[in-house]
Amino acid sequence: MSRTRRTALPRLGSRHAVLAGTALLAAALTACGSGSDKGSGGSGAGDAKNKPAMAVSVNLTGDQVKAGEPVKVTIADGKLAQVKVTDGKGGELAGRIAPDGKTWISERNASPGTEYKVEAQNSESQSATAQFKTSPADKVNKVSINISKGSTVGVAMPVSLVFDNPVKNKAEVEKQLKVTTSNGTEGSWGWFKDYSGNDRVDWRPKDYWKSGTDVKVEMNLNGVDSGSGGGLFARDYNTEFKIGKDRRMEVSLDTKKMSVTEDGQVVKTIPISAGTPGGQKASWSGKMVLMAKEGTIRMDSQTVGLGDSYDKMVDYSMRLTWSGMYAHAAPWNNANFGSANTSSGCVGMSDANAKSFYDMVQAGDAFEVVGKGSKGNADLGNGYGEWNLSWDAWKAKSALAGGAPQNG
């Protein structure tokens, strides 16, 4: 039996009946004025008694409603003038009244484990209310975001979202993701598998960001269904960040040097030794992103499938791929900086150069490896490899493609 609250109803004829299984909202006519109606000769109060009360139905009823679908309010007679649906915390589900005034549908889905109040008013200022409560989700999907709120990142950093559970309804999820920028940056979402094996969607600008751009990301996912095996999202997510200095690095495997440019001008050239050509110890090549500054970390060759080649603490470590390619200090390889590529895949340099370089760079800086002797580009999800794709190839990865690019 529905537990929807109902207001007191006047006696209604059969033409006001509402289908079983929907919530019936009704209220006595609100006072429209006092004194006599001179046009008809009758009193306003008398007319009010003869008018049927407002009757509307809601598609969601009771206290164990399954979440994940929009709220729909339908009026039996007349036209809706206003509908308001709020949750217990004061949040409101926005929605629209149809052109014919007969229905109102929320723009977003009802979220799990939430109590809602529906308030409706018709064009004659009659009103009615009802309540329903959604049950908790059987399974909840969550999102990990790569850029923390308030941070400053380099010009190559994409927005990257990794999901705990599979996302089958990619198009429905992508529709709820919005990137807004201070200068109308053109970009697009693209779906693929993260290095972890989880579903991932990134937003990449058409070209590298412009320094100074302010970026806001809204993920209105509360109540959205991931699809089979993924569960519902039970909250929204958001982040804001700024694009810092335009800094780019280029490592040449041929010259064994790394050049650092800022705003198009070379500010530093560093002798390096990259990965040993001809096998698994070769470096990845192509366009990458300096993912994070991790400082002093333990590097163990067995964790990256290179046997017992090394196990040591390494200073000034800057991650380039999830599989373990870094730029870092490598004082044990001093003799080869600028002359030979002999590392196990990373870009090594002297302690002094590593320190000054580490102090200079920021997460999100562009990092490219060129020249002969690499093992090719890393997989797309092994770091931020989207810059190796053409703009058209990247846009094609949107779940909304023939996807026009999103302008922020």
Provide a descriptive summary of the structure in words.
With 408 residues, the chain is mainly beta. The protein folds into three domains: 14-133, Immunoglobulin-like, CATH 2.60.40; 142-244, Sandwich (Immunoglobulin-like); 247-388, L,D-transpeptidase catalytic domain-like (Beta Barrel). The chain contains four helices and 29 strands. It has helices at residues 44-50, 170-174, 351-360, 391-395, and strands spanning 23-27, 54-58, 70-75, 80-87, 92-93, 95-97, 103-109, 115-122, 127-133, 140-141, 143-145, 151-153, 159-163, 177-181, 186-193, 199-205, 214-219, 232-233, 237-243, 247-252, 257-262, 265-271, 286-289, 292-300, 311-319, 326-329, 347-349, 366-370, 406-407. The strands form seven sheets. The protein has a five-stranded antiparallel sheet with strand order 1-2-3-7-6, with no helix packed on it. β6 (95-97) and β7 form a beta hairpin. The protein is elongated and about 100 Å long.
Quick structural gist:
The protein is about 5% helix and about 40% strand. It has helices at about 45-50, 170-175, 350-360, 390-395, and strands at about 25, 55-60, 70-75, 80-85, 90-95, 95, 105-110, 115-120, 125-135, 140, 145, 150-155, 160-165, 175-180, 185-195, 200-205, 215-220, 230-235, 235-245, 245-250, 255-260, 265-270, 285-290, 290-300, 310-320, 325-330, 345-350, 365-370, 405.
